[in-house]
Specification:
The protein is α/β, with parallel strands linked by helices and 581 residues long. The chain has 4 domains: 7-85, no CATH class; 89-185, Beta-Lactamase; 191-262, Winged helix-like DNA-binding domain superfamily/Winged helix DNA-binding domain (Arc Repressor Mutant, subunit A, Orthogonal Bundle); 284-580, Rossmann fold. It has 22 helices and 15 strands. The protein has helices spanning 7-23, 28-40, 52-88, 107-113, 131-145, 191-198, 202-212, 217-224, 228-242, 247-254, 339-344, 370-381, 395-404, 432-443, 448-461, 463-471, 476-481, 485-498, 504-514, 541-550, 566-569, 571-580, and strands at 92-97, 102-105, 119-122, 125-128, 148-152, 161-171, 174-182, 299-301, 307-313, 319-324, 346-351, 386-391, 409-415, 528-533, 554-559. The strands form 3 sheets. Strands 8-9-11-10-12-13-14-15 form an 8-stranded mixed β-sheet, with helices on both faces. The chain has a 5-stranded antiparallel β-sheet with strand order 2-1-7-6-5. It has a two-stranded antiparallel ribbon with strand order 3-4. Helix 6 crosses helix 7 (202-212), helix 7 (202-212) packs across helix 9 (228-242) and helix 14 packs across helix 19 (504-514). The N and C termini lie far apart (64 Å).
Length: 581
Amino acid sequence: MPVPSDTHARLSDLIGLIYDTASRPGLWPQLLDRLSAFLDRPGTPADGDGAEPMLALLAPHFVRAHDMQRRLAESDAARDLLDGVLDRLPLGMAVVRGDGAVLCINAALQALTQQNGALAQEAGRLVSRPRELLAGTLDLAQSGAGELPLRLGQTGMAGAVSLWISRLGPANGSPLFLVMAAGPASRALSQEGLCALFGLTPAEARVTQQITLGRSLDEIAVGLSVSLNTVKTHLKRVFSKVGVRRQPELLQAIYSSPLWLQAPPAPAPAALPSPFAAQPVAPYALAAAPGQNGADGLGLRLADGRWLAYSDSGPADGRPVLLMHGLAGSRFLRHPDDGVLHRLRLRLIVPERPGSGDSDPLPTRSIADWAADMAALVGQLRLGRYSLLGYSAGAPYALAVALADPVRVEQLGLVAAMPPIERIDDLGAYAPSLRMSLMLARHAPALLPPLLRGTVKSVRADVYRHLEQTLDSATEADRLALADPRLRASYAQGLLASVRRGEQDLVTELLLLARPWELDLSRLQPPVRLWHGEGDGMVAIEAAHKLAERLPRARVLPLPEAGHYALYSHWTRILAELVGG
């Protein structure tokens, strides 16, 4: 009996589900149902011979998945235990990068950042008010200044915070920093414990408590209703009993002791957010259902019944620019600074491709089909003549529209463009992670969905952590651009929108990119500018030069120091040159 053509694809999906179940035990019922259906289907290798041969083939995967599950459970238990210990600390603690990106944070510091005081979190980064205080101190610590104190807010102010910053070992070449923080509302160490462990008197213990909360000697004197000289005398005796000479040494000795274990558990703030989700990324946590109006209410019902969502910003009478978003993209993946649009008198329209964000999917589409959707949108908005801007994987879609509408397209710009893949060596221009996805899309598409599920999980689980990991290999210009909390929040929202339906629409996008585009690029009429970062690690600039050779009127504009996020780091320049040309 011939083997059904989709057997290998079904087997691949089944193996992928086995490993997914290792990290998500709730998938076991689905795995068993899928396994049963596979083994019972006529024509499978197990058909007629019983299930034993197929189960024998799958057995090593189950064994490996079980081992993965055990290791994950042990790791989760250890991490939960460590998190519980850190959350019992009366002192606020966090580990951050040099730009303030939070890698981990305990409950005490979470509470401090939620008091609308001198310390806060914005889009997954720890920031001070004013911002330059913490940023400047981290810069000093990064330059080798060692351990540094920092006082935020005025004495006696409700939101005042005292910080102590220490440099830790590097992570991927970038140093990390331990931030310890205390404020007026922080929990004090046990007075009885201080007396018992260090032989302090109750008065000396009370002064020590206030020191660990980051208060100055003047504040302690006022708070305890004693003279400043009395406080100094008590502190001198504390130094002698603990065996230290300075306040930093006292803090180190105190927090090297187990006294924090005696501190009562801090009341957990209601619905503590993830440190990487401190900046709201709504509306995509509660986004509209597929096929309904987008969160901003802008969309078009196409002739075939599909919903096409888009954003429309800038002056209504500005020169229209249609931006084709990148691979894992949506209408939110644009720069949030609309002031640039008003200064340049530009109306920016960002349509979402089928399956992205709120636009309905169309699995059987081609790149050329996008031109018909755009013709409907341009007609609905009565745009007349307009310009096109294609970013990354949006480049072929911008080219398709320009080919289909040569009369009305004035200018065409491509940023960090992904070129066509015609030979195996064309994949050399891409980063290894993207290269693997494109290779599978071209030669083994059945393996692509399991590969992309990990990306989807990463984005959904912690979108800001995913963004930080992406920026690990980015250029300095890229990191500076994404340091803007508004852009980070907008970008995070765009990533969440791109994976709202899972990995299938990303699979469709990659399949279209990796296969022949079926576009006659020699017929392109508008002039084309290709802005490309010289430091682009995702798509090398050599790929832009190869693409330009295929286009009749194309010019590559290298952007020194820029990376794959050149659209954001050079937003104003690109828009100005696009329409200025």
